[in-house]
Each structure stands twice: as C-alpha cells, then as structure tokens.
Prior knowledge:
The protein is α/β, with parallel strands linked by helices and 315 residues long. The chain has a single domain (22-307), classed as Rossmann fold, CATH 3.40.50.720. Helices cover 44% and strands 11% of the residues. The protein has helices at residues 2-15, 23-26, 47-58, 70-82, 97-110, 137-158, 191-212, 237-247, 256-268, 293-307; strands at residues 38-41, 62-67, 87-91, 116-119, 164-168, 217-222, 277-279, 282-284. The chain has an 8-stranded mixed β-sheet, sandwiched between helices. A hairpin with a 2-residue loop joins strand 7 and strand 8. Helix 7 crosses helix 10 (293-307). It is globular and about 50 Å long. The structure holds NADP nicotinamide-adenine-dinucleotide phosphate. NADP nicotinamide-adenine-dinucleotide phosphate (NAP) binds next to helix 3. Residues 43-49, 67-69, 72, 93-95, 120-123, 141, 168, 170, 223, 225-226, 229-231, 256 line the site of NADP nicotinamide-adenine-dinucleotide phosphate (NAP).
Amino acid sequence: MARDSRTTHLTEAVLGQRMTTRPEDRAGVSSEDLSGKTAVVTGSTSGIGRELALALGRLGAEVVLHGRHPERGQSVLEDLEAAGATGWFVRADLATRDGVAALADGVLELTDTVDVLCNNAGVFRRRGELTPDGVEYTFAVNHLAPFALTARLVPALRDAEDPRVVTTTSGAHTGGSIDFQGLRSGAAEGGWTAYSQSKLANVLFTRELDRRFPDVCATCFHPGFVPGSGFMRDLPRPLHWLGQAMGRIPLVGTTSAAGAATGVYLAASPDVECGRYYARCAPKDPAPAARDEETARKLWAVSRDLAGVTDPDAV
Ligand SMILES: NC(=O)c1ccc[n+]([C@@H]2O[C@H](COP(=O)([O-])OP(=O)(O)OC[C@H]3O[C@@H](n4cnc5c(N)ncnc54)[C@H](OP(=O)(O)O)[C@@H]3O)[C@@H](O)[C@H]2O)c1
C-alpha cells in the first residue's frame, strides 16, 4: 500500500495532475470506514489541516474542526457537511495555555471519546517573540500546544478502541536542535532556527509519547513542501515569491491535498507502525537528533513544566 501511494505521488507530480486526487485515494485508504469515530484536527481552517479534516469526514468520522478564525471554520464545516459528514468548529488560539485549555474543554464538551487527534496547527514566524505566557512563540504553538492538548485528551483517547495521535511535523526537523535555555529567553529566535527546533520537538514528542503510552498509537509525518498554503505567509516577500515559484516545479512542491495524504494514512490505515516518522505514506528514519532518548525525556519534563501540566496521570 505504501509503495502504491509513493507511485501515485510520483506519477501525478510528473503528469501535473496533483490537484485531482483526494488524500484518501492517494494514501490508499478510501475503503477504510471511520464511522462511529471522532477525529479532532487542529489548524483545520486552511491548508493541510482542512484537507485532512475533509478526508476523515468523507471516510465517515465525525470531525472537530479548529482554528482561530470562525468564518474560515464555518466554510470548512459547510464543505464537510456537503460531503455528508458531521462536524463542529472550536475556536482557540494555541499560543497560550488558556487557549489550549479552551480547545480541550471544547472538545470534551462535544465528545467523551477521541479516536484520532491530529496535531496539525503550526506556524512559521519570521521574527522571534514570546507568548503572553513567556515562551518562545513558534515552540509554544508548534510543540507545547500539541503536548498540552494531548495531555488533556489522553483519557478520552484511551476510551477509544484504536486511539491515534498524528502530529504534522516537517523535514525541517533535520536542521533543528533544542535550545533549552532559549525557550523562555527574550532573545528567542524566530525564522528557521525556531521552526526547525519546533519540528524536531514534534518528532521527539511522538517517539516519547509512544514509549510512555504504548496503548495510544503516536506517529508524525512530513507533508512535503506546500507553497500554496498559508504557512509561508510570514516569509519576507522575495522568499515568499521564490517559494511559490519553486512549488510549481513538479517533484519539488506539492498541494495541500497531497500533503494531507500521509496524515490520512496514519489516521486510517490498519498497517501503521506506531512511534514512527512518516513521509509519503511510508516510515522513514528521522534525523539522529530526533532519536536521542535523553533529549526526548528532558523535553518531556520541560514541556510539562512550561505547559503547566500538573496531573501526574497525564502525559
Ligand atoms: N506548508 C508546508 O510546506 C509545510 C511543510 C512541512 C510541514 N508543514 C506543517 O503543516 C502544518 C499545517 O501547515 P499549513 O501549511 O497547512 O499551514 P496553514 O495553511 O497556514 O494552516 C495553519 C493552520 O494552523 C492554524 N493556526 C496557526 N496558528 C495558530 C494559533 N496560534 N492558534 C490556533 N491555530 C493556529 C491556522 O488557523 P487560523 O488560520 O484559523 O488561525 C490554520 O488552520 C503545520 O504544522 C506546518 O508546520 C507545512
């Protein structure tokens, strides 16, 4: 199945038909039935998360959509319902502890059981800044929010028969390292340093979650380079345009729908290898820094502290 989906990616990229294939077809999971399951997809008001949410809805799941912009959420909700699926939208800003708590509360008001949690919301910030809680912004949204949200939803996940946590990371993790000193520093760096650090944290988190909670299947994936998404909006203009142009080159860029395929595969396929990093619907070895167990344990402890997780039974 994984090889078929890789072939699909390659063929379609070469033929220039990248817009036409749905993520679930691309991932080879169109026949999976997610009826009766509930999926939560963070950052589903646009880009990869939107495609991921719509695909899970078409497979039968009830979907909790999330983002900061209700009007965008409403538009995705309408698309979901037009596809015959049921969904809800919860608004929350994941840059703060309170925002993450509001999302967890919103989800738990809607459902007791979470079958699939897709930690997808993410940002790239050109400049370094601190959140109102005093944490480096990119790290807070891209890593701490998934950590804290998962912590709050672990009991609801454990109520599911086949619970999965799927986190959208990036190949950019290969250039990352965790600067533990800098996470609360006013001199926090933005740009690629902060982004690749946060994406490395996503992989370390996934592996450590899998080690600590073997009953919850944790995976993460690189969606590919998606220049059309909102993700690149904070790049300096020339780089933004360069990215848009590069993304149109077959085999370099991809679409949000194609980018979502691996996430849909990890949420729905019976063949998933838990604890692994994936790209193009196949497991891959992440960078050596992402396999460092000592860093993973330290990151876990620091994340608990920064996210204010006090429940000893939570992650
Ligand atoms: N695009 C790429 O080339 C690429 C490559 C590798 C990995 N990724 C990863 O893929 C994921 C999705 O990215 P995308 O390209 O689809 O980006 P996108 O189109 O900009 O979508 C980002 C989503 O995250 C939400 N979001 C952003 N900041 C938030 C915050 N502070 N609080 C709550 N929600 C927030 C946005 O919601 P609102 O708009 O409603 O605020 C939106 O729904 C990210 O984790 C990104 O790092 C992307």
